Model the fold of this input.
Amino acid sequence: MSEHIRSETGENTTAPPQAAKQAAWPERVEVGERQVAYRLTVRAGADELWALLADPHRHHEVDGSGTVKPRVEGPHRLAVGDRFRVHMKKYRVPYVMPLTVTGSEPGRLIEWAHPGGHRWRWEFRDNGDGTTDVTETFDYSWVGQRQAKAYELLRLQKENARGISSSLTRLAARHA
Done:
């Protein structure tokens, strides 16, 4: 809602809208070699957040990379062993990514593997005060040495760090 103010000349005018304040910024978390992880506290319970991320049909709602599209084939609630396909677009090139769930603990963790071997993991730690510490991790410790070197030459760690930070910020904004 705009606020009416009086200018120096005495005219009534409308104040420019103010941007919402960022509660906090994602912080880098050291979780291990060949892993990129960031954490942010979100004003929502762990079960609610897990339900959102355990539904691949809703991943586009929080994706900060800009690559995940709304079209998904697969279940609405992921469990270990489930397979799902996400329609994506990067560098204006559309493609479909087949993924396999490798970890699922309601209210605590959801993780899936990319065909290249790396994994995406979301972890939730309920703080008991209506907030949850959410950590998203790009984990390429599962790939071989050559592939890891290729990821590093392509600067995927840096690119994914930006996407993770943006995804966490988008998730927090939904619950501000």
Remarks:
- The radius of gyration is 19 Å.
